[in-house]
């Protein structure tokens, strides 16, 4: 009982302090997995606290996965599994990073283009010109679908005017696109298929819709069609979510034939395809040509989602989606229920930015800068991690996906912790699988936030950590 | 069969044209409710179309509620009930309105302060100053919780620094607040309580979470506590959603005693309270004092949601919420899954706008302007609709909620259509009830978008329409 004693700070909420205390006892194994916690009355008497405080602390332990309540019996400690613990720790790391509390780290986890390349002055110019031109008009709510001229402009610049601009819905970034499409389409127990591995932000949304998620392994040119067909044969599937270029995390791009095959399957088996076209502007390999699945979509089977935040103008939080007509109304309603509408001013600024073709130059610049980094990082990995990892160069995008060689005994979570101590941040593969364990042999490193100096230094440190691990197990350092 | 014939326009999708045609036949009763539609083969032969086109048209009819499919038997027409039809028609009206296609109407449906009062030059100043001060920094993603300085500023200006600023989460408007809180808290079949009537945007979100919704009638000083207690006695309730001031639509404000009583009930019955503080800045009645329920919340029972879009700087799409610690992590995750983060630039602009106290002047101005409109509209209603409607003046906010007198035989949906013909837009009460029919005797008229001229003219037309209705049934015109 004595271990439960703690000195309270009167300035803070007591139940939170008690919760933190018990949690740390569980983490340190001073309370064992499955150990019964004191009864509420017992602990209240012991700590001279109100029973409600104990109840709240126990409740929070349950909510956070540190305890189970057995009705009529009591509350029992539960050790959080290492992956859940890791995810928590990962998210805390990024809170610290984004609020500047991590100091000078080498961040290989970035997903957005670097602030160094942001066209601040262009953005400033269009914001001012929009406010001068439109005045208060620029601030009122738009049509639910989004600012009409922006939808026309998107149709003109990216679709050769082949879409009906009323089929375009402006959203506040691609993540919102995935969220509102899910709310409109996916209900409890609906079957949906994702790539394995896949983007963790999409996985979370589908899980929160209580969908029944099937994972299909990804191959060099897209998802494994035979595995997919097996699922389709036995299950009525609602939709398939995928990324057409530089898939996150596997970096795979789809072949045209696979895109077409998937469209055929969608028609035969009556399911819909969510195409997350998140990074196709950054193609470094001259043999890779761009063609979205949506552009081949004759039967209105593809929900196309595009982010402008990742690459265009990150602070602007705008993307769009193109939706089969059959879902148009429900997706629109879902948008209204999610946030009414996307910032009107930003939509107008983006429209002007497109009209003036500022983006063309900007994307050219990004391609030059990131191709350099890509080539440099590829070479560094090949040189310094050669026997430690396996990977396929993606030919575009902002990251590499590495598989630990069999000679490396630690998994990518352990690698994450070891590297974090040395000021290097990576993303372990466990984030990208429905059953996280399957990602333990993989990790992702991106170059969006790291110049060549940081890339060189970071890869060197990864190399030395992996070499130590290999040495421990008798494999010579290279 | 002949009625199915139509001439196709080759430029557009044929199945959509067929769908529209059949839908209009159903609307016009040329296909009756329950009538069997031709078989797919029959209709394909008759119209010389591919069978897939017929299948898609029938599928869309089903999705839109115009047909039922009976397996092995065929597809049957279904007349959409008048309320569902109305809601569709209402939403189309507003699409037309927001894209300027309705021309010069008198819009009594507005919910946001008028563009005439927007402080465009102040916004422009802060946007420029933020971009000059922060450069590209202003555009990168923030801490999940939102820009730290903005959270500090909110704590300082609105909470006297009594909150922990890390308990504040910045969101993209109040609707998003409701959505992410619901995703974090509410699961399938959870019991939740709302006021009757309540805000339609919240109802939709709760319905989409598949919650079990209880409605409790609203009285002059807040929800009916006896009715609420009856529900609490028999059901484990997860949360109660309410608006503390000028409730939308009933315009009721809560008494302090009712707020405290509700907090006590929440603690006793272990439920949480979502306080939507959507319009408390506009108080015209000097006897009404402001105190949020959150400010009385000692046991961390209240999730407080505040919009800045409605009143502060509408184009900016920012609000915030304060969340009990027990839900903090799950609400944060829900925010990330919804849209990653709110526009960083706009958060910085808002912070500067607050720092410079521009908002104090702006809200003073709004109070002067809207109090004038409020008094004027109140008098006009009292003078011209006296025997036609009943209502309680709210003493603040942006609208009135009127009940049709018994002498008026039409319901508010019919009134909506009649007024729309004359260029007047109102909101029928059916939008605000779980069972829409209960709102048929009510309608809402707001003055946010209408100056005194429009108010005068609009109320006159409403008066003449209602008088005609009363006359038809033998009640003399006044």
From TrEMBL, chains A, B:
<dbReference type="InterPro" id="IPR051446">
    <property type="entry name" value="HTH_trans_reg/aminotransferase"/>
</dbReference>
<dbReference type="Pfam" id="PF00392">
    <property type="entry name" value="GntR"/>
</dbReference>
<dbReference type="InterPro" id="IPR015421">
    <property type="entry name" value="PyrdxlP-dep_Trfase_major"/>
</dbReference>
<keyword id="KW-0238">DNA-binding</keyword>
<keyword id="KW-0663">Pyridoxal phosphate</keyword>
<dbReference type="InterPro" id="IPR036390">
    <property type="entry name" value="WH_DNA-bd_sf"/>
</dbReference>
<dbReference type="InterPro" id="IPR000524">
    <property type="entry name" value="Tscrpt_reg_HTH_GntR"/>
</dbReference>
<keyword id="KW-0032">Aminotransferase</keyword>
<comment type="similarity">
    <text>In the C-terminal section; belongs to the class-I pyridoxal-phosphate-dependent aminotransferase family.</text>
</comment>
<dbReference type="Pfam" id="PF00155">
    <property type="entry name" value="Aminotran_1_2"/>
</dbReference>
<dbReference type="InterPro" id="IPR036388">
    <property type="entry name" value="WH-like_DNA-bd_sf"/>
</dbReference>
<keyword id="KW-0804">Transcription</keyword>
<dbReference type="InterPro" id="IPR015422">
    <property type="entry name" value="PyrdxlP-dep_Trfase_small"/>
</dbReference>
<feature type="domain" description="HTH gntR-type">
    <location>
        <begin position="12"/>
        <end position="80"/>
    </location>
</feature>
<keyword id="KW-0805">Transcription regulation</keyword>
<protein>
    <submittedName>
        <fullName>PLP-dependent aminotransferase family protein</fullName>
    </submittedName>
</protein>
<dbReference type="InterPro" id="IPR004839">
    <property type="entry name" value="Aminotransferase_I/II_large"/>
</dbReference>
<dbReference type="InterPro" id="IPR015424">
    <property type="entry name" value="PyrdxlP-dep_Trfase"/>
</dbReference>
<keyword id="KW-0808">Transferase</keyword>
<dbReference type="GO" id="GO:0008483">
    <property type="term" value="F:transaminase activity"/>
</dbReference>
């Amino acid at each position: 009982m004595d271990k439960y004693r703690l000195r309270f700070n009167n300035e803070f909420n007591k139940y939170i302090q008690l919760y933190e205390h018990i949690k740390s006892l569980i983490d340190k194994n001073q309370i064992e997995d499955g150990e019964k916690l004191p009864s509420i009355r017992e602990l209240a008497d012991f700590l001279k606290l109100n029973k409600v405080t104990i109840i709240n602390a126990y409740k929070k332990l349950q909510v956070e996965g540190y305890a189970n309540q057995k009705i009529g019996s009591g509350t029992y400690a539960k050790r959080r599994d290492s992956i859940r613990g890791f995810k928590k720790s990962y998210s805390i790391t990024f809170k610290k990073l984004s609020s500047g509390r991590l100091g000078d780290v080498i961040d290989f986890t970035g997903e957005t283009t670097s602030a160094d390349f942001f066209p601040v002055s262009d953005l400033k110019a269009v914001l001012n010109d929009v406010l001068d031109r439109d005045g208060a008009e620029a601030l009122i709510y738009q049509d639910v679908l989004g600012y009409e001229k922006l939808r026309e402009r998107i149709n003109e610049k990216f679709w050769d005017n082949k879409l009906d601009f009323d089929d375009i819905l402006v959203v506040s970034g691609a993540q919102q696109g995935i969220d509102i499409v899910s709310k409109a389409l996916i209900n409890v127990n609906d079957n949906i298929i994702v790539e394995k591995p896949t983007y963790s932000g999409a996985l979370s949304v589908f899980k929160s819709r209580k969908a029944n998620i099937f994972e299909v392994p990804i191959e060099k040119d897209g998802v494994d069609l035979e595995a997919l067909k097996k699922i389709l044969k036995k299950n009525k599937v609602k939709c398939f979510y995928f990324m057409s270029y530089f898939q996150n995390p596997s970096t795979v791009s789809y072949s045209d034939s696979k895109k077409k095959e998937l469209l055929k399957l969608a028609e035969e088996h009556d399911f819909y395809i969510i195409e997350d076209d998140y990074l196709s502007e950054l193609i470094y390999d001259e043999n890779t040509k761009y063609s979205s699945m949506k552009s081949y979509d004759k039967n209105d089977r593809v929900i196309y989602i595009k982010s402008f935040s990742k690459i265009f103008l990150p602070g602007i939080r705008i993307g769009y989606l193109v939706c089969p007509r059959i879902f148009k109304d429900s997706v629109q309603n879902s948008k209204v229920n999610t946030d009414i509408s996307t910032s009107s001013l930003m939509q107008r600024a983006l429209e002007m930015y497109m009209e003036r073709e500022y983006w063309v130059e900007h994307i050219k610049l990004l391609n030059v800068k990131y191709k350099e980094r890509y080539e440099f990082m590829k070479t560094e990995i090949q040189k310094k991690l050669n026997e430690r990892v396996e990977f396929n160069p993606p030919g575009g995008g902002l990251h590499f996906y590495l598989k630990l060689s069999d000679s490396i005994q630690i998994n990518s979570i352990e690698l994450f912790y070891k590297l974090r101590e040395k000021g290097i941040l990576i993303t372990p593969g466990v984030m990208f699988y429905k059953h996280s364990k399957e990602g333990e042999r993989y990790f992702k490193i991106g170059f969006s936030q790291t110049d060549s100096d940081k890339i060189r230094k970071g890869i060197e440190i990864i190399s030395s950590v992996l070499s130590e691990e290999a040495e421990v197990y008798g494999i010579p350092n290279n």
